[in-house]
Amino acid sequence: MNRLIRRALYPGSFDPLTNGHLDIIERTLSVFHEVRVLVAASSRKNSMLSMEERVELIKKAFKGNRRVTVDCWEGLIMDYARNHKMHAVVRGLRAASDFEYEFMMAAMNRNLNSDVETFFMMTGQNMFFISSTMVKELFRFGGDIAPYVPKPVLQRLMQKRKEGEL
Fold this sequence. Notes:
The chain is an alpha/beta fold. The chain has a single domain (7-162), classed as Rossmann fold, CATH 3.40.50. It has six helices and five strands. It has a three-stranded parallel sheet with strand order 1-2-3. Strands 4-5 form a two-stranded parallel sheet. The mean pLDDT is 91.
């Protein structure tokens, strides 16, 4: 099928949203007309932020940018893509170690929904070491995460810590 893909889906847990995620989203906008950021539930991760908080923080980070939309989903990403007529998925790669997992996931997704193409995007040079997992660990031990997350994320996490939720 020959088609021009104008919208991309960028799924992830985004717990929390990092500057590395922002980098991928902004660079994806240079290739696609619209990016739908999909906050996906993950039973494998111990979340710091609720799904609703993550959606809200991503919306704040892209407030005023109509080309970035945000949604959440608790099922298979390929089912979401099928249900919403999305034909591209963007996956960020930080290091070579990410590639093997992402490659296998892309192959599985292709088997689940052959109408969806996966696009891999390398993160920016100065952000390859940033991951949500590392940011969470740094925050839990009192480290400064300000260089690695958008301001609204930092503010929310500091508020949660102050209120004893973290």
